[in-house]
Write a structure and sequence with these properties.
Strand content: under 5%
Order of helices and strands: HHHHHHEEEEHHHHHHHHHHHHHHH
Number of helices: 21
CATH architecture of the largest domain: 3-Layer(aba) Sandwich
Shape: globular
Largest sheet: 4 strands, antiparallel
CATH superfamily of the largest domain: SMI1/KNR4-like
CATH class of the largest domain: Alpha Beta
Radius of gyration: 27 Å
Distance between the termini: 79 Å
Helix content: 40-55%
CATH topology of the largest domain: SMI1/KNR4-like
Length: 437
């Protein structure tokens, strides 16, 4: 049996370092757990729990409970740990909606489980007319062999696989029956130590760093090395995603990322393009331009996420391609960049207010409403008030905030007659505009 003494000692040291690295408790959940862990359990207490439920806890998890601690001051008396921490032993039993005795049954889920296999496993429990008794029984089957050990909020938990070939692995589980996701680490202690490492490095010291455990861990160097060494496209993509969630990608990595971009297949090139942009927008711009005709969505997303101050660089590209855009998401990100410039982009959007797709028309009016000279486009707004889509009408009304031109009154009166009752907040927005007149 593996001896965990060295890793336990390392984790104790890193707990102190992590708390020092996050004095303002910016890490998600730190304001709840404050890096506090209560006293360890005794071997007898752990043995009693195992005998009661007829299970064997993973050896490394037991080492944590025996030598680091059990419980703390976070939600549900949880100890310091990822998200809202690590439950006191046994506090998560039954949390997955089934019989707690199901922990001793054989686990049904596994890391490579496909969406189709998961759908087949959950077919019965998803039926609308399932009885409470059958629902309880099915949930016991679906989540057999699993012990919840902490909450991430919104009902999502991290849990331990108790048996099977992946026993000891940490699993992210959403009891709303989304496909569970196994974390990449081999056991609980590796997962926990990675959490500490990413606090100490600064990657998790942010209110919005809520991705821990859903991406591959390791340094940029180790992830790049694994990317180059592994031939499995799934693993290669996971390596790139692991780099992507780093707080920063220092510019010296650009040449290696550029080489990988040039050699990669299309699926990986898109992730590498994102990495290049995050690393250095200035150096990435030629690659963004080269991909803009074939992958405009990914290009404008990258600019918006990592270089929105340079939105004006993309006016020519957007002006040229916008008339051919029929995807609402692509159009939306194009308008984000337009809105971040100081130019009058009204002439670009006017044709799009008559686009066949209602969502694109709606976004067009919303974005026109951000212009300081939006009153110049009154005729287009009046046409928008007569649109067949309630969403377009609502967005047009909202865009007209502050415009008191009397030529709007006939269109407003027509709307009042067309909507004798509230639909999709059209009337409430109409009342706001009439108050301004």
């Amino acid at each position: 049996m593996r001896n965990y003494d060295t890793q336990i000692a390392r984790i104790k040291e890193k707990l102190v370092q992590a708390k020092a690295a996050d004095t303002d408790c910016k890490v998600f959940g730190a304001t709840s757990h404050h890096y506090v862990i209560d006293s360890p359990l005794t071997p007898e207490e752990i043995q009693e729990f195992e005998q009661k439920h007829q299970i064997s806890l993973p050896a490394d998890y037991k080492s944590f409970l025996l030598h680091i601690g059990n419980g703390g001051e976070s939600f549900n008396r949880s100890a310091a740990g990822p998200y809202y921490g690590i439950y006191p032993l046994g506090d998560g039993v039954g949390e997955l909606g089934g019989d707690e005795d199901a922990m001793r049954d054989g686990i049904k889920i596994y890391p490579e489980m496909s969406s189709e296999e998961w759908e087949q496993l959950t077919t019965t429990v998803m039926q609308d007319d399932i009885s409470d008794e059958d629902y309880y029984r099915e949930m016991s089957v679906i989540y057999a062999g699993i012990l919840p050990i902490g909450t991430q909020g919104c009902g999502i938990v991290h849990a331990l696989a108790l048996n099977g070939p992946h026993a000891g692995r940490v699993i992210n589980i959403n009891p709303e029956l989304y496909l569970p996701q196994f974390c990449y680490e081999n056991n609980f202690l590796d997962w926990y130590e990675r959490w500490l490492d990413e606090i100490i490095s600064g990657d998790l010291v942010s209110d919005d760093a809520t991705w821990f455990g859903y991406s591959m861990g390791g340094s940029i160097d180790s992830l790049l090395a694994q990317y180059h060494a592994d031939s499995d496209p799934v693993v290669k993509k996971a390596c790139l995603r692991g780099i992507l969630v780093k707080k920063t990608i220092p510019p010296p990595y650009f040449p290696e990322l550029e080489t990988a971009f040039r050699q990669a297949e299309t699926a990986h090139r898109l992730v590498l393009l994102q990495l290049l942009t995050k690393c250095s927008y200035t150096q990435a711009r030629p690659f963004l331009l080269s991909m803009s005709d074939s992958h405009l969505l990914e290009v404008v997303q990258n600019v918006w996420w990592y270089a929105k101050d340079n939105s004006a660089d993309w006016l020519e590209t957007i002006s040229r391609q916008l008339p051919q855009v029929h995807d609402a998401e692509t159009f939306r990100f194009c308008t984000y960049l337009l809105s971040a410039t100081t130019t009058d982009y009204g002439p670009l959007l006017l044709p799009m207010t008559q686009h066949p797709e209602a969502e694109i028309r709606s976004t067009s009016f919303y974005t026109l409403g951000k212009l300081p000279n939006k009153a110049d486009y009154l005729d287009a707004f009046i046409a928008g008030l007569k649109d067949s889509s309630n969403d377009v009408i609502r967005n047009t009304l909202q865009a007209l905030a502050g415009i008191t031109d009397k030529r709007l009154l006939p269109a407003y009166h027509e709307l009042a007659a067309r909507f004798p009752e509230e639909q999709d907040y059209v009337l409430s927005n109409l009342r706001q505009r009439l108050k301004e007149m």
